[in-house]
Amino acid sequence: MDEGCTRVNETRVKGVYWDGERLLTRNTAPGTRVYGERLFDCEGVEYREWVPGRSKLGAYIRLGGMDVPFRESSKVLYLGAASGTTASHVADIVALGTVYCVEISQRSFRDLVKVCEGRRNMVPILGDATRPEELKFAIESADVVYQDIAQKNQAGIFIKAMRSFRARAGMLSLKARSEDVTRDPAKIFEEACQLLQRERFQVLDMMDLAPFEKDHAMFSVVA
Ligand SMILES: C[S@@+](CC[C@H](N)C(=O)[O-])C[C@H]1O[C@@H](n2cnc3c(N)ncnc32)[C@H](O)[C@@H]1O
C-alpha cells in the first residue's frame, strides 16, 4: 500500500473513481500491482491508480469520455491485451464478470499470464484477433468487445469480432499510423466512423486521445 486517501467518489463511469487528482479502480486483487501503479487505501477499500498515459481507455475517461459499456457482471472480449495493463482495470470494473484477454505476441502473453494468475476474472488466450472462429474454444459470445490492436483494418477486424461474438456494445481504440502513416489521422478516424455506421453500428462517441496518445481515437459503439 502506498498511501491513504481522503475522499474517493465514483465518476460518471460506473466502477471508475476519482480522488480529486487521479482516476482509480477498486483493486480486485488487493496488494498487487500490474504496471507499477500506486495503491491507495480509502476507508478500508484498496484502489489502484489508473494512469491515463499508460492506458488508452484511461485516457478516454480522463478526457471526459463517458460511453463506457462495462457493467459489474459483463463478459468482455478484450482483443490486444498486451501484458494486461488496461485489461486489469477493466477486470476491476467488471468485478463479477470475466475479461477474456486475447494477445498474439508470445512475449507479451507470458507477462499477461502472470497478471491473470493473480486475478480470478481474467482469462488469457494466446490467439489472433483477426480469426475470431479460432477463439471460440474459449468464448462463445460476449457482452462487450474492446479492441486495441495496432495493425491495418482495425475497424474491419472489430466489426467482424462484434458480429462473431454477438456483442451488443464495443469500444475500438484506433491508431491512425497503423492504417496509413502518410494520411491525415482525422480523415482515417472519419472513414472508420463511416464504415461502422454503414455496417449499422451506432457510434455513441469518437474521441481523439491527444495529448495522452498522439494520432489515436477511441470509438464507443452499440450494435
Ligand atoms: C497497443 S498494444 C495493447 C495495449 C493494451 N491494450 C493496454 O492498453 O494495456 C497492442 C497489442 O495488440 C497485439 N496485437 C496486434 N495484432 C494482434 C492480433 N491480430 N491479435 C491479437 N493481438 C494483437 C500486439 O501484440 C500488442 O500487444
Describe the model.
With 223 residues, the protein is α/β, with parallel strands linked by helices. 26% of the residues lie in helices and 27% in strands. It has six helices and 13 strands. The strands form two sheets. It has a seven-stranded mixed β-sheet, with helices on both faces. It has a six-stranded mixed β-sheet with strand order 1-5-6-4-3-2, covered by helices on one side. The longest helix is centred in the C-terminal third of the chain and has 14 residues. The radius of gyration is 17 Å and the shape is globular. The mean pLDDT is 96. Bound molecules: S-adenosylmethionine.
Keywords:
single chain, 223 residues, 6-stranded mixed β-sheet, 26% helix, binds S-adenosylmethionine
Indicate the low-confidence ranges by residue numbers: none
User: Percent of residues in beta strands?
Assistant: 25-35%
Please give the alpha-carbon distance between the first and last residues. Answer: 41 Å
Bound molecules: S-adenosylmethionine
Largest sheet features: 7 strands, mixed
Share of helix, binned: 25-40%
The overall pLDDT, averaged over residues, is 96
The total of beta strands comes to 13
Specify Rg, calculated over alpha carbons: 17 Å
Structural class based on helices, strands and sheet pairing = alpha/beta
Strand order of the largest sheet: 9-8-7-10-11-13-12
Shape: globular
The run of helices and strands is EEEEEEHEHEHEEHEHHEE
Number of helices: 6
